[in-house]
Amino acid sequence: MESIKTDSDLRDEIPSQQFSKKMSHSEVSEASFKMDRIHPKSSQNTVGHVSWVVDGVAFPNGTDFRCKYKGYCYYAQVCDGALMINGKKFLSPSAAAVTITRNAVDGWLFWDCKLPGNSSWVNICALK
What we know:
The chain has one domain (7-127). It is built from four helices and eight strands, in the order H-H-E-E-E-E-E-E-H-H-E-E. It has helices at residues 7-13, 25-33, 93-101, 107-110, and strands at 52-54, 57-59, 64-69, 72-79, 82-85, 88-90, 112-114, 122-123. A hairpin with a 2-residue loop joins strand 1 and strand 2. It starts with 6 loop residues before the first helix and ends in a 5-residue tail after the last strand.
């Protein structure tokens, strides 16, 4: 059975100085920041909260999301298997992005995320 890495596992494996604003998305992926792909049926993390699993990528409960659109910053958070924005649940990054832009948007390019316990933001497309 595959498992989800905890915050402490990620901190041990990925030194914080590996990430800087100058890194490209491909460099971030090459720096082993890619999250383990898991089967949706095994999406519970160690504390019992359900991760949000999208296209084989698991975002642990408490993962922060942000985007910038027309000069405004928008924030969301993973909560019990969904992305939450202002109390509304979304099952895909694109659906969440469309509520902000009112246009068709590739949510994988639109959103950045910060995993629990990390201080760096990364575009979620780099995690695929």
